Amino acid sequence: MAFVKISEQSSLYNDLEKKSIGEILRDINNEDKKVAFAVEKAIPQIEKLVSEIVPRMKRGGRIFYMGAGTSGRLGVLDASEIPPTFGMDPSWVIGLIAGGDIALRNPVENAEDDTNQGWADLQQFNINDKDTVIGIAASGTTPYVIGAIEEARRHGILTAAITSNPDAPVSHAADIAIEMIVGPEYVTGSSRMKSGTGQKMICNMITTSVMIQMGRVKGNKMVNMQLSNAKLVDRGTRMVIEELGLPYDEAKRLLLLHGSVKNAVDAYRAEK
Question: Of 31, 47, 52, 112, which residue is the catalytic one?
């Protein structure tokens, strides 16, 4: 049976250019409402993946996102948000995009069609069996992603795939297949829309749950966030106040001295 890409099927809407702005916006919003339900159906597979990642990361393993185009950009985006949000070194979660960093802003011709380049990119990081490779491919057929996953799996590395098509080639290549079936896009084939939204949601779920399991959150607070601007310093100061009941200026002094909410609170309590 031939593989059918649901994500490439014709939009459920037609004559888009004849619609009013309000109609277009309401139609897109109605389609977007389907995304969370599609992600919900994939939770068992996401849970299985996170359960496999956590013990690996506790032994020093890393997460590698791999994708091309929109999918690659979303992996890089999620990886780039981990250091400021959770205070983790950038080497813990790494996003790789076909064509390299230039492809974040400009398409790189034929980059996603190279079956061997994904594994070559991973080897630059001395990838090993404590690591996890997550391929993101809305179509489920991206050679750059499939080649990397197949080779990683042959080397005993945990692999997962995030795709918008059931029974996709990338699903067969990976240990764990996360299939988020959002249906045809509003603009036919434009996977930056529902597929991209769902990919971002799933990446958020994976790394947030991993970081919580790794002890980077206390209660519901980002106690390890980087203090990279005045807003975050103020937020961190208020967290210290909430934990210790100190005056604002003293809480801020402690925070800046120790570099994070967690370290400030731990240091204060150790002195008492």
Answer: 112
Q: Among candidates 7, 6, 1, 26, which has minimal Cα distance to 16? A: 26
**243 among known catalytic residues:** no
- How many CB atoms are located within 10 Å of the residue 272 CB? 5
Q: Exactly one of 8, 52, 81, 242 is catalytic; which is it?
A: 81
Is 271 an annotated catalytic residue?
no
> Token pair for residue 123?
């080897």
Residues in the chain: 272
Distances (CA, A) of 51 to 84, 94, 162, 264: 24, 19, 16, 30
pLDDT tens-digit readout, 205-227: 999 999 999 999 999 999 899 89
